UniProtKB/TrEMBL annotation:
SUPFAM superfamilies: TrkA C-terminal domain-like. The lineage of its organism: Bacteria, Bacillati, Actinomycetota, Actinomycetes, Micrococcales. The chain crosses the membrane at residues 28-48, 55-78, 90-122, 134-154, 174-195, 409-425, 431-449, 461-484, 496-529, 541-559, 579-599. Gene3D superfamilies: Regulator of K+ conductance, C-terminal domain (3.30.70.1450). It is a multi-pass membrane protein. This is SLC13 family permease. Keywords: Membrane, Repeat, Transmembrane, Transmembrane helix, Transport. PANTHER family: BASIC AMINO ACID ANTIPORTER YFCC-RELATED (PTHR43652:SF2). It comes from Terrabacter tumescens. It is found in: Membrane. Residues 308-389 form the RCK C-terminal domain.
Length: 601
């Protein structure tokens, strides 16, 4: 077989493996680049070059930036501000949610925006008493349109921009995509609001997401928190020194309730054990009464008072977490009480046994007891790895939903804006701007190193890195020219509009069963060859491929965003085309009409 035929056979086998869906997509990509080397279509350097390609570096860095923006509470803040501004009208909220998803996608990619907004949308659907299926699919489709608002919206945009440079043309600038992307966002929102309720099914979510926006209020009510706590350290010479803890009497101070005594070593002091220097007396009550007690009993405030108002127990610096004592935990048999300090800065706010409040007196813990702990988010997050307790809710999820604009949100926004400016002005290559932004997010501690590693979708990295050599082989072997010639024979020479329609159809169809990124990598060399064969400028052709690559709307497997909404929206495989097909056809009409007006043939 000729090299061109061999590369087309490899392409066909790759598509079949993607459609078969029995192997991981990353595994298919690696097998593809190994096959290209084994058949002699590319050398070893070219077969591995995709993994070090600037496109891959840029995409990986965008995923880290996306994680930083979300974990800092910026997306939560945007969602809450959205509700505050537009109110709770169903149509207004629908338009606002779709518009927000489109804008977020332009900054943090489709996967990031759908993941960030999906919990909020599920909560909104519950509050509006609407099926989430009427909101999630239009939101995902609006996000796909939003990926065409800026260079950072999708890996596809970066791929076609680099392809334009490789073809000897000018790269697409940061906001060039918005020329066609903005009209597509508008028509997608209109179709989602008007057509969506008529064609989409009304089904309950198969994976409801808890609304943690009022988490602090609910926990305060559940643990019956009414008063704050004062931790008072016993100073030398205090009259309480030597008094058995069980006989400590504060009746001389009306309004003050003794909760417990904790030793300097962190253990509860109970019964006949005497109170000693540096022990901590925990009380609750009115501040004026406590203020009188402190000097008279020669006590010192060991920690600023902890209030149980929502603003007091959960904000940017501190939060709460509910934990359960598991069987065989070292905590079983220990004495605990509200106000007790555990670890460096975690304070017990409340204890419940079998769902019932046990009051403020010291209690010997048993398996199944639940405790409400208050402290810094850093200390709370360390409990994730603590085997002595089981966490009821993920601290990270609680923080993202309940604490808008977290402690590091300002740094995250500044870094994000700096990256956008660098990309918009073209001061440095996109990969450098993205890598610098991701590094800055880590150095400024918006995200930890481990968070940054977890944020990178290695499946996406391997997929793109493994398929870039296939794109190269299709171009260098002459396969792109063969396919392009076939397209030209079908549509005829001198018919650039028909060529655009054919390329759109080819990209859109393949993109429904293969990821849109992989599809564009495959189609780009064919599109460039077709443009050069017919004497058409590559810019309109590549911009159309970018639009068609984003139009992966007919199946749940075409994009991770479509897949993410399937369970929460209660969708089935065949539901996507109901709204996706009209949106895709309108996209094609807009793209074929508008693109040649801006980028001339």
């Amino acid at each position: 077989m000729s090299p061109a035929t061999t590369s087309l056979v490899v392409l066909g086998a790759t598509v079949v493996l993607f459609v078969w869906n029995r192997l991981p997509v990353g595994g298919v990509a690696v097998l593809t680049c190994l096959t290209l080397y084994a058949t002699g279509l590319v050398d070893a350097t070219t077969a591995l070059s995709g993994f070090g390609d600037p496109v891959v570096v840029f995409i990986a860095s965008l995923l880290v930036v996306s994680e930083a923006i979300d974990s800092a509470g910026v997306t939560t803040w945007a969602g809450q501000r959205l509700i505050d501004v537009v109110g709770d009208g169903a149509v207004r909220l629908m338009v606002a949610v779709l518009g927000l998803c489109a804008v977020l996608t332009a900054v943090i990619t489709l996967n990031g925006s759908v993941a960030a907004l999906m919990p909020m949308v599920l909560v909104l659907a519950t509050r509006l008493k609407r099926s989430p299926s009427l909101m999630l699919m239009p939101m995902a489709f609006a996000g796909s349109a939003g990926s065409l608002l800026a260079l950072t919206g999708s890996p596809v945009n970066v791929i076609v921009s680099n392809a334009a440079v490789d073809a000897g043309s000018q790269p697409f600038r940061f906001f060039d995509f918005a020329v066609v992307g903005l009209p597509l966002v508008v028509v997608t929102i209109v179709l989602g609001v008007v057509l969506g309720p008529r064609v989409l099914p009304r089904r309950p979510s198969t994976r409801p997401v808890r609304d943690l926006g009022r988490h602090a209020d609910r926990l305060a009510a559940y643990y019956e928190l009414h008063d704050g706590f004062y931790r008072l350290r016993v100073r030398p010479g205090s009259p309480v020194v030597g008094v058995p803890a069980g006989r400590l009497d504060l009746t001389a101070y009306p309004g003050v309730t003794l909760i417990g005594v904790q030793s300097a070593g962190g253990h509860a002091v109970t019964g006949t054990t005497a109170v000693d220097d540096d022990d901590v007396v925990i009380v609750s009550g009115a501040s004026d009464a406590v203020g009188r007690l402190v000097p008279e009993l020669r006590l010192a405030v060991a920690m600023r008072p902890i209030t149980v108002r929502t603003a007091g127990i959960m904000n940017r610096e501190v939060g709460v977490v509910e934990v359960v004592v598991p069987p065989r935990s070292p905590l079983v048999g220990e004495t605990s009480f509200p106000g007790q300090l555990r670890g460096t800065d975690l304070v017990v706010l409340g204890i419940r046994r079998l769902g019932r409040d046990v009051g403020a007196s010291p209690l010997e813990l048993t398996a199944g007891d639940s405790l409400l702990l208050h402290g810094t988010w850093t200390s709370i997050e360390e409990l994730v790895h603590d085997r002595d307790v089981l966490l009821v809710d993920s601290p990270d999820l609680v923080r993202r939903q309940a604490v808008p604009l977290g402690a590091r949100s300002g740094r995250a926004i500044v870094v994000l804006l700096a990256m956008v400016v660098l990309l918009a002005l073209g001061v440095v290559p996109p990969a450098i701007a993205g890598l610098a932004a991701a590094t800055a997010m880590v150095l400024t501690r918006v995200v930890s190193v481990n968070q940054a590693y977890r944020a990178v979708s290695w499946q996406t990295v391997v997929l793109i890195g493994g398929l870039i050599p296939l794109s190269t082989a299709i171009e260098t072997s002459g396969a792109a020219g063969l396919v392009a010639k076939g397209l030209i024979d079908v549509v005829g020479s001198g018919r650039p509009y028909l060529l655009l329609v054919a390329l759109f159809a080819l990209t859109a169809v393949v993109g429904e069963v293969v990821s849109n990124t992989a599809t564009v990598l495959i189609v780009v060399p064919i599109a460039v060859a077709a443009a050069q064969e017919t004497g058409v400028s590559v810019q309109p052709v590549l911009m159309l491929v970018a639009v068609a690559g984003a139009a992966s709307l007919l199946t749940p497997i075409s994009t991770p965003g479509n897949m993410m909404i399937m369970g929460p929206g209660g969708y089935r495989f065949g539901d996507y085309w109901r709204l996706g097909l009209p949106v895709l056809l309108v996209w094609m009409a807009v793209a074929v009409t508008l693109i040649p007006l801006v980028w001339r043939f």
